[in-house]
Amino acid sequence: MDLYAKLEVYPRNDKKFTDANEALASAISLILSAHPGPVRRFCVPPHILQDRPATVDAWLSSLALVNLQELDFWDGKDMIYRYMQPSPLAPPPASTFRFSATLLVATFGKCEVLDSSVEGIHFPHLKQLGLEDVSISEGSLHTIISSCPVLECLLLKDIFGVGCLRISSSSLRSIGVGVDHPRENLQFLQEVIIVDAPCLERFLYLGMPINLTVISAPKLETLGCLIDEWFHPPRLVFGTASIQGFKVVSLTTALSNVKTLAIASDFIDLDTVIELMKCFPCLEKLYIKGFH
């Protein structure tokens, strides 16, 4: 059984929102109490973590969710939730992590992950992890990533509390990072350092540009989107190559493993793009996006 709960879009202070929220919570409680299980996937809008933490804790403690494989506290299809930014973010219930031994896919949205909640945690089967609009310390983020020995896909979108992230993983194949909506007075991710990722094939920038340093990722074939901002161009250091925006600062060894590259700029200068392409002699696909 997949249990996916979706709330109709109303302004949060609207009575219709309150009534719909109440009806949704009642329906989920009724289903979980009546269903013998197993439930494979449990997905609810993240604002319920804020509004009804005790109720969510009771849901996650249900016997129907034993051996849960997918846990999703994010509904990215309803854009209204992206702008419901309660302050401060609330931590997920302690029962959230009781599924760590069986989860294959997990997405946590609009919450604060406390250091104490991830101490000693282990996700032996987790292959996909997403954190969206999440406050977390650098130490806790490292703990979570290192506790996933078979993790293949990592999404970090609008995470706060980490300025620079160093990643070493023998299993990761795809990484997506970015910031769309910075929170006031909260540090957001500005730099990623790929220390050792022998299986990494894709690194994708999502939203505002960040600095990227790649020390070892021999299978990295897809890279982008590189952004050329005139006021603060991001830096890419890949092996011996250093690129600021679209400008090649230094290049000793070409990046011959990259086959797909995406770039974006307010003003596309053909000569600059051609010069940039010299860094990627085995390039097969080039995607160019203008902001205007």
Automatic annotation (TrEMBL):
Q: Which Gene3D superfamilies match?
A: Ribonuclease Inhibitor (3.80.10.10)
* Top-level lineage group: Eukaryota
Enumerate the InterPro entries for this protein.
F-box_dom-containing, LRR_dom_sf, LRR_FXL15/At3g58940/PEG3-like
Pfam families according to UniProt: LRR_At5g56370
Which residues does the UniProt record annotate as the domain F-box/LRR-repeat protein 15/At3g58940/PEG3-like LRR? 56-288
User: PANTHER family, alphabetically?
Assistant: F-BOX DOMAIN-CONTAINING PROTEIN, PTHR32141
Name listed for the protein in its UniProt record: F-box/LRR-repeat protein 15/At3g58940/PEG3-like LRR domain-containing protein
Whose protein is this, by species?
Miscanthus lutarioriparius
